[in-house]
Write a structure and sequence with these properties.
Helices cover about 85% and strands about 0% of the residues. It is built from ten helices and no strands. The two termini are about 35 Å apart.
């Protein structure tokens, strides 16, 4: 993980350096290169992170005596697409329309805040970001809880489409939202704690960034193992009829 992440960062750095050399002093070209570099960084570092997250998830599932789908280029690319779609479901509340209106309104207000910031109206920008964040937060929290085990479902269930994966997670967490919320808070608190520690250590000259990279797998391990544990608990408490319905739906899709 560490070698791959360092290689990804170096690759992004080389891409950025080459781009800025080609852009020269043209402001528009420099702006375009900044956007392209950010997109390239998200793609490369994102794929590396997701690949190793999948490895952690596979190991966690096997520890729980559950099967895991094979990890290869196609499955990782599909996982990348899954994460994008899941994020859209969470932010825009596609499964819970009642939360979609304030969420979309909040996003629009935050976009307006971005334009305020570009216009140097810092106070108005801060107000817009705060108001927009408050409107988006309920949808993000609720939908994150409902889709908490969707990543586990993706790697555990065979031949499931992205929509079916999200649907299974939604049904598994139905009626258990408060318990899943508490589990998510614990997982998030532990991951954030590791992030804070690694962030503080990153301030140490020379060795700081290296220590931060070394601690990245710990944060990923906490989140993946936590989600696998929540999934196992929900699976054991899912009624037999619901399990059979999920199995039939999966077999039908496979056929």
């Amino acid at each position: 993980y560490i070698i791959a992440m360092v290689a990804a960062i170096i690759l992004v750095g080389l891409f950025a350096a080459a781009g800025f050399v080609l852009a020269g002093v043209n402001d528009i070209a420099i702006g375009i290169m900044i956007v392209l570099t950010m997109l390239f960084a998200i793609l490369v570092i994102g794929l590396v992170s997701l690949f190793f997250r999948a490895k952690f998830m596979s190991f966690a599932l096997k520890r729980k005596k559950l099967s895991s789908n094979p990890i290869n280029t196609n499955s990782v690319m599909k996982y990348f697409a899954f994460v994008i779609v899941k994020s859209a479901y969470i932010v825009f509340s596609l499964k819970k329309p009642i939360l979609a209106v304030p969420s979309v309104l909040g996003i629009v207000i935050m976009i307006i805040g971005f334009f305020f910031m570009m216009d140097s109206s810092i106070v108005l920008a801060i107000i817009a970001f705060v108001v927009g964040g408050v409107l988006v937060l309920p949808a993000v929290i609720y939908n994150t809880v409902r889709f908490l085990v969707s990543d586990v479902v993706f790697w555990q269930k065979k031949n499931c489409s992205i929509a079916e994966t999200l649907d299974i997670s939604w049904k598994m967490s139905q009626g258990k939202e408060m318990k899943v919320l508490i589990a998510w808070i614990v997982i998030a608190a532990l991951s954030i704690g590791v992030g804070i520690i690694s962030g503080m250590l990153a301030l140490v000259p020379i060795c700081g960034p290296i220590v931060r990279i070394l601690m990245m797998p710990i944060s990923i391990g906490i989140s993946t193992y936590g989600m696998a544990e929540v999934y196992a608990q929900l699976l054991s408490k899912t009624p037999a009829k619901a399990k059979e319905k999920i199995k039939k739906k999966t077999r039908k899709k496979k056929a």
